[in-house]
Amino acid sequence: MPTENKVKFGLDKVYYSIATIASDGTATFGAPKPFPGAVDLSLDPSGSLEKFWADNVPYYQYNTEAGVLTGTLEMAYLPKDFRKDCLGELEDAFGLLYDDADAELPHFALLFQFKGDQHGVRHVLYNCVASRPSIAGHTTEGSNEPKTESIDITASPVYFAGVGKNATKMRAYEGDHGYDSWYTSVVTPAASTT
């Protein structure tokens, strides 16, 4: 294991992988596809730490988030493949995209990396659904400053039968199993040997 990072910075190497969720809650994943143009990612747990008070102290504490993360992914531009694969947009006979207002939004895994002062840390969110982006633009006013596109993302747990657990996310540090092949196929939890 390399030296531990002191800081993290620099979101990059964003990929996505189509997820198929079976009726028993397990998932399979397609080959990851590059999703260039990462600007910002911010996700928060959707629940909170609750306290039950007794004897004038927090007698029992429990977490209500259940592994769900919600937030925003900001990209330079949402490419056509991502719009079709993850936002449920359809392509007509002329290659034009349109949204199917009745479509159920597809599930996907989101893979990405944060750089650090020593090495990168790679992440995967297994069961994501994204909202369709807002439509926005502005005049150039003498300069061409890029306008980014953002999507709201919800990442939920998915069941992994091999370990008998639900998981929302996983991370790998440089030198960990799967780090070098992170973008070849979606790495999933392995059964514990201890």
Describe the model.
The protein is mainly beta and 194 residues long. It has one domain (8-137, 144-173). 4% of the residues lie in helices and 47% in strands. It has one helix spanning 80-86, and strands at residues 8-21, 27-29, 33-34, 38-45, 49-54, 57-63, 69-75, 89-91, 97-99, 107-116, 121-130, 149-156, 158-160, 165-167, 169-173. The strands form four sheets. Strands 1, 2, 3, 4, 7, 10, 11, 12 and 15 form a nine-stranded antiparallel β-sheet that branches.
Could you give a short description of this structure?
The chain is mainly beta and about 190 residues long. The protein contains one helix and 15 strands.
Protein topology:
Elements (H helix, E strand, L loop, with lengths): L7 E14 L5 E3 L3 E2 L3 E8 L3 E6 L2 E7 L5 E7 L4 H7 L2 E3 L5 E3 L7 E10 L4 E10 L18 E8 L1 E3 L4 E3 L1 E5 L21
Antiparallel strand pairs: 1-2, 1-3, 1-10, 4-7, 5-6, 7-12, 8-9, 10-11, 11-12, 11-15, 13-14
The geometry reads as: globular
Oligomer: single chain
Helix content: under 10%
Largest sheet: 9 strands, antiparallel
Radius of gyration over all CA atoms, rounded: 19 Å
What separation lies between the terminal Cα atoms?
20 Å
Low-confidence parts, pLDDT < 50 over ≥5 residues? none
Category by helix and strand content: mainly beta
Q: Enumerate how many helices there are, as a single number.
A: 1
Number of domains: 1
The percent range for strand residues is: over 45%
Mean pLDDT: 89
Please provide the ordered H/E string of secondary-structure elements: EEEEEEEHEEEEEEEE
Number-wise, the strands total: 15
